[in-house]
Amino acid sequence: MFFNNKTILRGRFAAFTLVELLVVIAVIGILISMLLPAVQAAREAARRIQCSNNMKQWLLAAHNYHSAFNCFPGLGKDGVGTYSVQAHLLPYVEQAGLSSLIDFQKPLQTGSRGTYYMEASLAEIIQVSASLFRCPSDGTNELYHISQIGSLSGPDALSRGGNYVFSTGSGVYPNYDVRYPTDGLFYYSSNRGLHSITDGTSNTMILSEAKLGDNNSSAAVGDAPVMRRVAALSASITVIPTADNIPGSNPPLTDPGAGSFANIKTLTDACPSWSGDRAGAWIWGAPLYTSFNAYYPPNHNLPDIHFHGVGFYGARSNHPGGVSTGYADGSVRFISNSASLDLWRASATINGGETVSGL
User: Fold this and answer.
1) Which DSSP string do the residues of 71-95 spell out, in sequence order?
2) Strand 332-336 and strand 230-232: pairing?
3) pLDDT > 70? residue 16
4) Distance between CA atoms of 116 and 110, rounded to whole angstroms?
5) Is the Cα dihedral 71, 183, 280, 63 positive or negative?
6) How far is the C-alpha of 240 from the C-alpha of 350, rounded, in Å?
7) Cβ atoms < 10 Å from Cβ of 148
8) Cβ atoms within 10 A of the Cβ of 281, count?
9) Which three-class secondary structure state does DSSP give residue 323?
10) For a tag on the chain, would you pick the N or C end, based on fewer CB atoms within 10 A?
């Protein structure tokens, strides 16, 4: 029988062998495994740019508010009825319609612990969200059940969280207590402005980021991610921290009779309860929800801690390696987790006279 050479060749090379097919699949798998990290990195870079843009909008809003009132807004008068800096800046971030629904002459809520009340209209407003409140790298649910916020109908009110938080200072004793003037720009009833910043606007931070809580409160932290829980101390404890396991932290202090001494790790290990609503109410001026201090370096592995409505609230983000931070000159910088703690705290003060170059 006569065979055409072309027929033989076609029959010989008409299909892949099993080995060849497996090799091709392996090569494709390797290429995909190499491509995915690059795609993820590109997406995170885009999210970080968006986060930085959001932060610039808040900085611009703060400066426009300052132009109108010759100061930055404070946290209000106390931790119960006070509106946040963010709430006061609403007209300057293209949220004038939302701002017009709030009567800032009335407290956010009235009553006493366990029986707080707010007007029904406010109970709806606190659930409003905008992309400007949120870092796109933090995908945690932003809707919170906060038992400390009451409504006229009695049940807990839902609130929306926000990742951008304003600086109350270094957090070094006694500057963690925003009931009194701190070494930062914001505290209860503050009205500080650019004239207060003698360290220079490019050396003084205004805001940074917070990770949203995991929306779960309990007597023990359990298996929850500790960076999304806040250690809640007994109301009977007043804390003046001594040296803890943060490198370069402040040394032990002499007791002035103001309360207990403890290091932060000891306090969190013995904490009677944990809160899962960090940054869970953008409208509320209580430090747990809308501010931070620089006691911890960025993304430190000790959890936030609070007591009497004040405490140690760190700057944290889902960005790999650090946090975005806004400064009084309008700039936004990415501060590394490994940044000098002394420089980080110095940049939170307005008139400490420190040198912060190299942060």
Assistant:
1) S-----SSSSSPBPHHHHTGGGGT-
2) unpaired
3) no
4) 5
5) positive
6) 22
7) 21
8) 25
9) strand
10) N
For residue 7, what pLDDT is reported?
47
d(CA 55, CA 266): 35
Residue 250 burial (CB < 10 Å; 0-12/13-18/19+)?
middle
Whole-number average pLDDT of the chain: 80
Query: DSSP character for 215?
Result: S
Q: What is the DSSP string of 37-57?
A: HHHHHHHHHHHHHHHHHHHHH
Q: What SS3 state is found at 307?
A: strand
Three-class secondary structure of residue 125 per DSSP: helix
The structure tokens 């103001």 sit at 258
Token pair listed for 146: 């906060």
Q: Which are the contacts of 201, defined by CB distance < 8 A and separation ≥ 6?
A: 194, 327, 328, 329
Exposed / middle / buried, residue 337 (Cβ in 10 Å: 0-12, 13-18, 19+): middle
Which tokens sit at 202? Answer: 């490019």
The reported pLDDT for the residue numbered 23 is: 79
Indicate the pairing of strand 322-327 with strand 332-336: antiparallel
Omega prior to 155 cis, within 30 of 0: no
**pLDDT tens digit string along 177-192?**
898 899 999 999 999 9
Cβ count near 333 (within 10 Å): 17
Separation of CA 15 from chain center = 58
pLDDT of residue 115: 63
